[in-house]
Amino acid sequence: MKRIKKGDQVIVIAGKDKGRQGTVLKVDDDSVLVEAINMAKKHTKANPMAGVEGGIVDKAMPINISNVMLFNSMTNKGDRIGFKTLEDGRKVRYFKSNGEVVDV
User: Fold this and answer.
1) What pLDDT does 45 receive?
2) Which domains does the chain have, with CATH numbers?
3) In whole angstroms, what is the distance from residue 91 CA to residue 8 CA?
4) Pairing between strand 21-27 and 55-60?
5) Which residues contact 99 (CB under 8 A, 6 or more apart)?
6) How confident is the model at residue 95, as a pLDDT?
7) End-to-end CA separation in angstroms for the chain
8) Burial class of residue 83 (count of CB atoms within 10 Å of its CB; 0-12, 13-18, 19+)
9) The pLDDT of residue 104 is above 80
10) Which residues lie below 8 Å from residue 93, measured CB to CB, with a gap of 6+?
11) Confidence grade of residue 103 (pLDDT, cut at 50, 70, 90)
């Protein structure tokens, strides 16, 4: 089980976008793609056959997973994640600061 999953609300703790938050779009082994974070300019060539216009477009680039923390809405801060097993045998993630379960 991973500490950060697709759809989680995260906050960036290091880099040029420090302090910004967004939703995780994709998780790889050691990097995550966060919506509107770590944007780069990409030059694209026009392709009239496919209906693609040429020009400069903004593209979200992956950020290292160690540079993001799961956002805790109770404290409005990034928080560390732990794992515990419930009475019914499910393994869930929880916030270390207040013990609240992330996965419901």
Assistant:
1) 96
2) 9-76 (2.30.30.30)
3) 17
4) unpaired
5) none
6) 97
7) 15
8) exposed
9) no
10) 1, 3, 70, 81, 82, 83, 101, 102, 103
11) confident
